[in-house]
Amino acid sequence: MKFPTARTRDAFPIYGQLGIHSGPPAKVFRLPEIALEWPVTVPAGVGPVPGAGPRADPLSTEAQEGFRFLKDIGRLLEEATERVRDAVADGKVATYIPELAKADPALVGIAVHTIDGDTHHAGDATVPFTLQSISKVFALAALMRLTGPAAALDGMPCEPSGDSFHSIVRLEEESGHPRNPLINAGAILVSSRLPGANRREMAGVVEGLLASVLGASVGVDDQVYASESATGYRNRALANYMQHFGLLRNAERACEAYFTQCALSLDAVGLARAGLFLANGGSDPISGTRVIDTDSTCSILALMAMCGLYDQVGRFALSVGIPAKSAVSGGILAIVPGRMAIATYGPALGSKGNSVAGMAMLEFLSRELDLSLFR
Amino acid sequence: MKFPTARTRDAFPIYGQLGIHSGPPAKVFRLPEIALEWPVTVPAGVGPVPGAGPRADPLSTEAQEGFRFLKDIGRLLEEATERVRDAVADGKVATYIPELAKADPALVGIAVHTIDGDTHHAGDATVPFTLQSISKVFALAALMRLTGPAAALDGMPCEPSGDSFHSIVRLEEESGHPRNPLINAGAILVSSRLPGANRREMAGVVEGLLASVLGASVGVDDQVYASESATGYRNRALANYMQHFGLLRNAERACEAYFTQCALSLDAVGLARAGLFLANGGSDPISGTRVIDTDSTCSILALMAMCGLYDQVGRFALSVGIPAKSAVSGGILAIVPGRMAIATYGPALGSKGNSVAGMAMLEFLSRELDLSLFR
Amino acid sequence: MKFPTARTRDAFPIYGQLGIHSGPPAKVFRLPEIALEWPVTVPAGVGPVPGAGPRADPLSTEAQEGFRFLKDIGRLLEEATERVRDAVADGKVATYIPELAKADPALVGIAVHTIDGDTHHAGDATVPFTLQSISKVFALAALMRLTGPAAALDGMPCEPSGDSFHSIVRLEEESGHPRNPLINAGAILVSSRLPGANRREMAGVVEGLLASVLGASVGVDDQVYASESATGYRNRALANYMQHFGLLRNAERACEAYFTQCALSLDAVGLARAGLFLANGGSDPISGTRVIDTDSTCSILALMAMCGLYDQVGRFALSVGIPAKSAVSGGILAIVPGRMAIATYGPALGSKGNSVAGMAMLEFLSRELDLSLFR
Amino acid sequence: MKFPTARTRDAFPIYGQLGIHSGPPAKVFRLPEIALEWPVTVPAGVGPVPGAGPRADPLSTEAQEGFRFLKDIGRLLEEATERVRDAVADGKVATYIPELAKADPALVGIAVHTIDGDTHHAGDATVPFTLQSISKVFALAALMRLTGPAAALDGMPCEPSGDSFHSIVRLEEESGHPRNPLINAGAILVSSRLPGANRREMAGVVEGLLASVLGASVGVDDQVYASESATGYRNRALANYMQHFGLLRNAERACEAYFTQCALSLDAVGLARAGLFLANGGSDPISGTRVIDTDSTCSILALMAMCGLYDQVGRFALSVGIPAKSAVSGGILAIVPGRMAIATYGPALGSKGNSVAGMAMLEFLSRELDLSLFR
């Protein structure tokens, strides 16, 4: 079944209410009271380009046949989910946010969306989950849209940290400057720069970007938000530390905005669809909407490649070889530039905080479809 | 002139109003609205012992003559202040709390109080200053009085940190456990354990201990408190980090209590008098009041010796050799067990955050009076 | 002028004797007494494949025209060298190896070699320099050829370190295991695994790989080797530390082999030619020789992308976006998979140890030729 | 039985041959071929002062009775060894030097020597063991005698490290400068400064100091030395690191000298006797020989207090409160200034590398005899 495009926007269901499956009891989602409209202060030239249409030069059908893509993608995704069913027993669901601990570790799902409109999924690809760290990518995109990439990344050297995602050690060594916008400190700094008077308005900017692509609003899982807000003292430490060094002005509000954006909820199908613009130079190939400019897209993909998988980013580069961002909720968003977006879901995490099933499925797909940028 | 003892308590002026000198304009002090009474839940046996009187066996007059103490202490203190007047030019007043930056870097004062009641001072020994980190010693004493030393130190290995006083690196490496109660993280943890519903009540416990010794209430410098509260985000980071690891429950209140106790204000004369019980096994030798038990006293002195001078604690051990605690406001409280308390003041700090004049005067006195525990 | 290929091998001059230019006095090179033959214990299946010829499917001419490659590459290289002439004034030649300090900071050169045989260069592209850290790539390739990629990388998690290239801190935290084979510790570990009874034989394995591609022996700059051996105590510390943890058995020999391989000397033209197999899946497209298998090539490129530019690897990913390895001698080898190898030379280094001119020229070329993997 | 003094020097047996007990098989000791004479280049004024005799003012008999010392010391030592017999089951003998792993973990011994000549011991106080880290104290004393304390400590800030004894992390952060002379790096630096052309001559300087006090030569346990030399690559890493920063010139020789001095062998009775000068201001009270000057002694005691017990130095200050130095061989030398030297032996170590029995016996003795400097 073809994924809904902008042309069928009206019929598109609201994300977060989709989660109908036989697994854990459906969560109750509350529509956020956040601004759904995209802020109007977009710099000239990077705003929506109505009617721009899909990129003029996607890979030729001939080239894609070289990847034997079209003929067997559906079968491959099924095979991918089957292969990892056993492996998930080695992982454990995240517990540091109490609400996440309720996820079913046996869930495994994957979805693919190509830039010329094909979409496939297998397994539990319609089970919604909170974006958590994957939201960092969309928050950064939203900020870049508003300020351009240079201002969005100001004060961050954009280097891999070599430490775990929540480490505060580097902040001390480097005068409060986060290594990059995809570790927690950097992501909180990005969130602090989003416009808005409160957490809902600030996270609403991220939701607005997602909604503009998906053609539907995206819900916030209030239980997960509340759970993270009640326990997120390590992140508050990071934010206060940055405030000490003058990088932000309101540590508490920045954290709250960050916690809210982390609780935005999608399923794998929706996530692959939402991230598709990243595979297409910043322009959504289905609706033709330009989300961000090409330079911003290129920067985000480079950052995902260098810093997107916590401290397994190197192993992922060797075994998969494409830009990706993982989340402790069990999701991974992976981008093959010029070709496709892939989203995986599997809440059983390995010791480094990445989805066991997601890592394995992406490695399998990369081999089968020759996706690595280094091959 | 003899320092007022408990017997002249009524005539004892309120600290913080004493600051009459020709230096910087006198600050306006506001009496704290904190509870002056000592909490009544003191464990049996460690409470005040009215009429206990001075320790039965202070060092004999003969022994003290061996230190040529009585005859020339006044002259020595004058000499000490004279010798360091030039050295202060090398130091700089602390600026990280904006209000502290207003101190006059040329100020130099010293006061000595012996356990048998002699007291002398020289230089700017009646200029009030906020206790800052020196308050950590009295907060720890107050907590030990209420809970005993083991509970007060619970969760802290009581080792020197090897890092600067505000470092957060060790907290991460050691799961949120501060190395000792005299670095900022540990002191905030101590403050969080003081009874009270708000910062005033909690800091009031520390003030109560000081007042019980001094026979007069001790003021809080509200401007310094407000200045630190408005800028103390590094300390808030430490507190939130500890809350993440479950060591405390209300990071914000703990910080506020800590900032308030840090703004308690005394001059060198009063500080030496207040710390005298630490030189006398925990019992104030003038009033005969037992402040804390001997084990607590011994623990506090050991901690001061190991962790009291930031990252110059080793140099201080070699050159001075007695337990001491310094503060970024420029004060140092030094204790010679069984003999005396010494307080120095000199807001010009060296690169490690210790008073240049204070360090030099204590080194001079230690040599002249043979005070080192290692000699 | 076309670069000599395997078909003109006989006429190919010996590298290290090429350095005829008007700059600093020509160094005296001594041909190493190391084994030039490639070790015969190559695993079956990965050895040379005579007559294999260039990869069957290089990018089509049509595609390359899309990059407007063929028409103006020569002009672009000239423009690149011109643009950076001023920038080199901001850099400084490396001084930690005394011999390197003699390099002329004004030198700037660049060479490109495409997988279908075109080659161009501009500026000081025929000035020889020692490979230093770039040799890590060829040593790793040589080891992978002998043992396969898994064994070659054994004991190394292959993650970016987040620290500077010579840091020993991570070794302590991680029980002697280097983060990856491109930081010094990892590279010494790789060298320790090369077969041979002494430094000359071990470095000879690396030289053998280079010679098999270049069709000529590669000299060792004995003065640079001697200079590094006389001063390389930080590297010896790393090696002894790894020996403590049992990762290698002869720290001194490993260091000596490493110092020798670092002193292998090429010019930019030769370096681009030598690295061309990395752009062609492990097979040299000119001679048709298979150097290493495709998996090894993919791993090496991923490692270069993640760890090849010291602590500017992130910035390089954003601004250039291709796998590369830099050296303190001023060289950079950059690989565009499926398209070309680029070598730059410019001994003036920025504060992070990378060639100022090289970084700038690669950024310029990447923009002009649309080389980034993330675009 | 009174311990032999200088007056019975001729009859004094050679240490290392004393170890006659029913425990593990006696080791074979070889007399070192090192120079036994004390170097003659002693600075004027700090050399031996023949006939100086014991310090004029040891604590009066009256004062010592206050400590109820004389009457029951023998019984107390017996009680101390009895009390800890069970506790040693919690510890483990050091294994990082293979030869040390052969020690009997059940051994427990203690010896006390007062500055007025009384000596007592209990348990396995005549079982010889290698001094290991305790030798750092005597090497530092020997160097201070030759160069004065300032030159001996040059380049070391003399601060506690906060890290474990063999950590290399601080060396990197602080440009190769060891925190203090009692961690491994600092001790190797001290050893590197001892005069001598090889390890035997350099370690001979330390032996010479011990011999001059004990009136007998001290043997080197060659098996332990060989074992440490064959495995001491972590220490070699430290030494090479310091050589990189120019702090020493011959890392290998410095390590070998250090390994040799570490293998000097004494029993607890001899160790207490050898360290007695440290309790007496630098002059041996039995023979009247001045070993080092008072300033050097004071510095050494301060360093022992701040850095002598690895990362339990703070706990030891709180529970025992006197300067001490421990060793992984299971020995501890503790000094009560002006009163006595105490040596304990118990090769079962706790997790921090200190003797379980030794720590417990010293805590017991400190309580019973009121030894803490902070009491």
The count of β-strands of chain A is 7
The CATH topology of chain A is given as: Beta-lactamase
Radius of gyration of CA atoms of chain A, rounded to a whole number: 19 Å
Helices and strands of chain A, in order, run as: HHEEEHHHHHHHHEHHHEEEH
Largest sheet of chain A: 5 strands, antiparallel
* CATH architecture label of chain A: 3-Layer(aba) Sandwich
Percentage beta strand of chain A? 5-15%
Number of helices of chain A: 14
CATH superfamily of chain A: DD-peptidase/beta-lactamase superfamily
Low-confidence residue ranges of chain A = 1-68
Give the helix/strand class of chain A.
Answer: alpha+beta
Number of domains of chain A: 1
Given the C-alpha coordinates, what overall shape of chain A results?
A: globular
> What is the mean predicted local confidence, pLDDT of chain A?
83
Distance between the termini of chain A: 31 Å
Largest interface: A-C, 36 and 36 residues
Q: Portion of residues in helices of chain A?
A: 25-40%
Oligomer: homotetramer
Descriptive overview:
The structure is a homotetramer of 375-residue chains. Chain A has 375 residues and is of the alpha+beta class. Chain A has a single domain (6-19, 49-369), classed as Beta-lactamase (3-Layer(aba) Sandwich), CATH 3.40.710. Chain A is built from 14 helices and seven strands. In chain A, strands 2-1-7-6-5 form a five-stranded antiparallel sheet. Chain A has a two-stranded antiparallel sheet with strand order 3-4. In chain A, helix 3 (135-147) packs across helix 7, helix 8 packs antiparallel against helix 10 and helix 9 packs across helix 10 (251-262). Chain A is globular and about 55 Å long. The two termini of chain A are 31 Å apart. Mean pLDDT of chain A is 83; it is low at 1-68. Chains in contact: A-B, A-C, B-D, C-D.
